[in-house]
Write the structure tokens for this entry.
Amino acid sequence: MSTLQVLEEFRALPGEERRQVAEAILREEDSWIPESFRLGMEDIAAGRVMDLEKVLADAPVEKSGR
């Protein structure tokens, strides 16, 4: 089957089935996604994140010695 045939069949699918196929392809072939992004997404899924605005708001202000 050629690439063109695969694309034609993909385009003929109903929207929900196209979504499922696209998700399956992304799960199988993710070499284009940077490792740092994948690790970040794992951290988010595991709840290992903090709200940056809250962290910055709670950070102590350093006094300059000038």
